[in-house]
Amino acid sequence: MVCGLGPAGRALAHRALAHGLSVTAVDPHPGRRWTATYGGWADELPGWLDPAVVAATVDRPIAWGTRRFEIDRRYVVFDTAALRGALDLGGARVIADRVESLGTEPTGTKGPWRVRLSAGEVLTADRVIDARGLTRSPARAEQTAFGVIVPADRWSEPLFMDWRPDNGAAPGEPPSFLYAIPLGPNRFLLEETCLAGRPALPLPTLRTRLLHRLRSRGIDLHGDEPTEHVRFPLEGGRPTAHRFGAAGAMLHPATGYSLTASLSAADAYATGAPPHPVRTRLVHRLRTAGLRSLLALPPTDLPAFFDAFFALPPHHQRAYLSATTDLPATAAAMTALFTAVPWRIRRTLITATLGRG
Q1: Which InterPro entries does this UniProt record tie to the protein (predicted)?
Q2: Three-class SS of residue 114?
Q3: What DSSP character marks residue 34?
Q4: What's the rounded Cα separation, in Å, for the pair 302 and 201?
Q5: Could you give the CA distance from residue 89 to residue 15 in angstroms, rounded to a whole number?
Q6: CA distances (Å), 139 to each of 85, 198, 206, 234, in order?
Q7: Which residues does 221 contact at the CB level (< 8 Å), separation at least 6?
């Protein structure tokens, strides 16, 4: 049984069906249209995924800290409707209801799982995986973004992350960056993004910064452009065999990316062979330390921090961004980054990393 039919849960249910399993899926709104824009690294995509779900590919996306970098890694942007359609659930029993509780009864036994729905029905299953995502809380860091969609003749440069200080923010204010990606051959999403904050920057502030940044680059909006609003927690996931997607800590706490990691792990979880739990937990702890470091850095130091990151060799960048179970590679990447940043930033990183033991 899969609880939650967002992109991660739907991918898991789809792959369980592909392996011949009997699947029940529960979600309050299983037919809801997905409105968010999803992107990720091309080398993380599983072989079973239909290539038609990719709306655009950027061979070498651009990043700016205080200077320009070309990232040596292909980036893809999904056609959200096509992705949802490709994750077909034909053959599954889909229940439109909310999960109130789940677990085995009595506690600690190895008996069947029991899932209680808000309507009062109790379902049982040999395996239950929670893919309901993360709930928001003032105690949890969040990522926020405000974006507009413009025709491709008004913007053409793909930007993975642009920290240049032309968005009107004062030097001591919490920082934000520009994310600019193609949505296909004719459209670009331009999004002012707060990478992580506790609290994160509010959407009206990001909207003001985006308009200021675009005007400073000679682009005035008409006011009727489609918009995108983003807000989600970066903390709260736990890496276990019974949690998947953001709920299972597949969301990178220092970047917010999770979809391609969930897609690539769907087969293993569907067949009951999830990655090594100890290594997964340890990598997640290192990544969580990375989030604490980002939250602790003074706003004026973030561009220099990302200069150091994007100057790392590609294998270190890939390890930190994508290696969910490779503890030595993740630790090596973080060590390389630590030695590359200026001393003033190292002191902050040490304090933030060790601050919670």
Answers
A1: FAD/NAD-bd_sf (IPR036188)
A2: strand
A3: P
A4: 16
A5: 9
A6: 35, 7, 21, 11
A7: 148, 150, 211, 214
What lies within 8 Å, CB to CB, of 303 at 6+ separation is: 64, 65, 66, 163, 164, 165
Pairing verdict, β 93-96 and 75-78: unpaired
pTM for this prediction: 0.93
Over residues 209-253, the pLDDT tens digits come to 999 999 999 998 988 999 999 999 999 999 888 999 999 999 999
Give dist(CA 144, CA 197) in Å, integer: 8
Please say whether the beta carbons of 1 and 113 come within 8 A: yes
Tokens matching residue 253: 């706490």
Helix (H, G, I), strand (E, B) or coil at 236: coil
CA distances from 8 to 222, 251, 285 (A): 36, 10, 21
| Alpha carbon separation from 75 to 41, 149, 294 (Å, rounded) | 5, 19, 23
